[in-house]
Amino acid sequence: MKKILVIEDDIKIRRILQLELEHEGYQVQEAVDGNEGFERFTKEHFDLILLDLMMPKVSGEEVCKKIREISEVPIIILTAKEQLLSKVSLLDMGADDYMTKPFAIEELLARIRVALRNKKGYSTDNMIVYENLRINRELKKFYKGDKEIPLTKKEYALMAFFMLNREIVVSRDKIIADVWGFDFDGDEKIVDVYINTLRKKIDDEREKYIHSVRGFGYILKKKGE
Q1: Could you report the per-residue pLDDT of 63-109, keeping only the tens digit for each?
Q2: How far is CA 194 from each of CA 137, 187, 206, 223, rounded to the nearest angstrom?
Q3: Domains 3-117 and 121-224 share a fold
Q4: Is the pTM higher than 0.70?
Q5: Where are the domains positioned within the chain?
Q6: What is the homologous superfamily of the domain 3-117 according to CATH?
């Protein structure tokens, strides 16, 4: 049974997470602030951590950095929309993923499954890898296999978003918020235009990566022969 540590100061959110996670078959331990969370982590083994970003005593950011110094355990940050940092900033502090409050429990459970599976992709400070796709974040370059594929600035941002959310269905609204920003007031169909451009650059007859999910959005998942 996988064991999850929930570090969250909101008692209602902790209770909901406990009930939903236990219903899915996970074992759950809780901590009400950063100090207690880090102390509990050092004394027990956990397979994944759900970590609130804004907490009393010690912030989620500091807890994340301290845990990452001693462990590679998957960490999913929980953050309010108005406190939202860029995904890259969260990864730089050592997180594997994040969810914005309020969140759909189904999406959180999907992200937990992906983080626990963690076989087909990984992220480091400078690299994002999924299957034979690779992004060098320091050089801002994208590769398929050993071949560099030139991308525009926006194509690069969109591709990085998909690779960071690999194998998770994401809505057009979420793509716009993360890649174009919450204040974007243009035509939302711009997402479709850029996705079609990326498909032309990375897909071939044997391998296809970005797929439409009717009524939901898009997903990055390798499909081929």
Answers
A1: 998 888 887 788 999 987 655 565 667 767 788 888 888 888 999 99
A2: 20, 12, 21, 20
A3: no
A4: no
A5: 3-117, 121-224
A6: Response regulator (3.40.50.2300)
Distance of alpha carbon 42 from alpha carbon 85, whole angstroms: 27
Residues 6 or more apart whose CB falls under 8 angstroms from that of 28 comprise 3, 4, 5, 6, 17, 18, 21, 22
Q: Please give the Cα distance from 199 to 210 (Å, whole number).
A: 7
DSSP-derived 3-state class of residue 122:
strand
Give how far the C-alpha of residue 120 lies from the chain's centroid of Cα atoms, to the nearest Å: 14
Where does residue 79 rank: exposed (0-12), middle (13-18), buried (19+ CB within 10 A)? buried
pLDDT of residue 154: 94
- The H or E element that residue 100 is part of is strand 97-101
Burial, 134: exposed, middle or buried (Cβ in 10 Å; 0-12, 13-18, 19+)? middle
The DSSP 8-state label assigned to residue 84 in this structure reads: P
Separation CA 38–CA 159 (nearest Å): 34
Q: What is the pLDDT of residue 166?
A: 85
Task: Specify whether the CB–CB gap between 51 and 78 falls below 8 A.
Answer: yes
CATH code for the domain defined by 121-224: 1.10.10.10
Burial class (CB in 10 A: 0-12, 13-18, 19+), 51: buried
